[in-house]
# Entry
Amino acid sequence: MNGTLLMNEPLSRHTSWRVGGPADRYYEPQSREDLSAFVSSRPASEPIYWIGLGSNLLVRDGGVRGSVIGLHGALEKLEMNGEQEIYAEAGVHCARMAKFAVNAKLAGAGFFAGIPGTVGGALAMNAGAHGGETWDSVKEVEVMFHDGRCEWLPRSAFTYGYRHVEFPKDMIGFVAARFRFERDEAGNAEQEMKAWLARRKATQPVGKPSAGSTFRNPPGDHAARLIEACGFKGHRIGGAQVSTLHANFIITDDSATAADVEALIAFLRAEVKQQKGIELEPEVRVIGEPRHA
# Structure
């Protein structure tokens, strides 16, 4: 089995917020064969977490018991599968797939450029941007189970909705997917993608440590509008701060801890609930244990 196995590896090195305690084991495979061998070697009772770019993820300061597998840099195959289909492995950056689709004269994939993560992460949460959602274009997915076995499953095997996907029993992660897009007959796909990227750069704290959107948008409203209306744009707890550019983004500085981020998330939820009567639901996945005193 090839790849890199690190013990007590700080996950702050592998998450976009740059906070988080150590993983008992952190493994980066070189191939899907390595991945399968590692997964099958772990006890059935051991928690296994998969991460890509570490966006949309908050790792608590006490770290993660079990194994964390980093797929970015390992599963990166991206190719055409016929005239209108793209095959992408889980470690492919979403922005890379968007540009690949545009170069292939396909429409409907440009929104992936606005997702700050990998294909695997986008599949796991039905990530979206600019009105598009990942599972709208999925044809079928390759998944891995706890015994290391891989299997292709049709889109119909999954239940999904806004920022939510339900997994089949014993599945631990996505290995690859086949996406189907329309042909770019109008020739607008590249222009649309560039416009979305320019808007993202102008309205979001691109280049600063964040996890993307912190909260799901409630029906008929926007989390950013609610937070700003409550007066908390720029609000800070420790090293975590609500972005002054986009209120649904929390950014961190070098002094930040995961506890700061989690406390700020809880504070915003409580205040918006009290002032507006709306319960904000986090879009961010939280794993691990708090730091013990």
